[in-house]
Amino acid sequence: MPYLLLVLTTFFWATNSVLVRGVADVTDPFMTAFLRWGFAFLIVMPFWLPVAKRQWSIIRSNVPILLWLSITGVGAFNTLIYLAVETTTATNVTLLHAFIPVLILLLSRIFFKERVSTLQWLGIISSVIGVVALITQGEPARLMTLHLNPGDLWVLVAVADWAIYSVTLRYMPKGLEPFTFFGLSVLIGTLSIAPFMLVEQGGLHIPQLTSSIWGLMVYIAIFPSILSFSFWNRGVAQLGAATSGLFIYLMPVFGAILSVIVLNESIHGYHLVGISMIILGIWLAIVPRVLAARAQTSKT
């Protein structure tokens, strides 16, 4: 089940990468992030408030870590990406995203002494090769033509932010229900974005958006936000940050598939090579865990 949740997470994130461009063209970065998470909170609030009241004692006694996880997970990551895409290319964003699983593995090993297997490293290498094949259209020499842009710094900060968030999820308070944590994260994250949005807009101004753009915002609030965030946290809780991080490499895979389906782009050999290498990489990383789980099941 956690594997399916992580696959769905990256699929929804991939759709967000495509759809958010239509929103970002007519709104500013902080406003985009504020609307995204603000809508998400309004949707979950009626269901979340009764649960939060019941668990208020746990929330009150764990304020520092909850603030940290909420701001890094909801407030910072997507906002940094929205800032980045104003001054960098989608190719650079995709390429730099490939460092998230690497950084998660390194942080897990250095600070938490997690064992990183050879197969996990081989999985990352295979997946990175697949990502490069996709974004360079099978011509790795194109990497030499990439230029560093101001937005790349924002992407690198976002990469570090998400990796740190993922490995520190282990400190989520015991006994706190996932839905309680999610709703609180969205509330605090949205509030952390609000001051920057007000400065950006010069006050509170509701953007004049078309009905189709508002519809996109609702989709982004439900699928890439509410569902993906919840699924990611569940996957990390069950599989660990290091294994879960590898599923991020599926984003360019789904991006390529969506381009073929939605934009009628042609399928080329580099698509097949890139997708195959990414799937191989993820398989290499998770197969020891799957085999161990099967062995444990057979004993019982």
Condensed summary:
The chain is an all-alpha fold.
Which of globular, elongated, flat, extended, rod-shaped describes the shape? globular
How many structurally independent domains? 1
Structural class: mainly alpha
Low-pLDDT segments, ≥5 res: none
Number of helices: 13
SSE order, one letter for each helix or strand: HHHHHHHHHHHHH
Strand content: under 5%
Descriptive overview:
The protein is built from 13 helices and no strands. With 300 residues, it is mainly α. It has one domain. Helix 6 (99-112) crosses helix 8. The longest helix is centred in the last third of the chain and has 31 residues, at 269-299. The two termini are 20 Å apart.
Features of the shown structure:
mainly alpha, 300 residues, 0% strand, globular, 13 helices
Write the layout of secondary structure elements.
Blueprint: H1 2-24, H2 29-54, H3 56-60, H4 63-84, H5 90-97, H6 99-112, H7 118-135, H8 150-168, H9 178-201, H10 211-239, H11 241-245, H12 250-262, H13 269-299
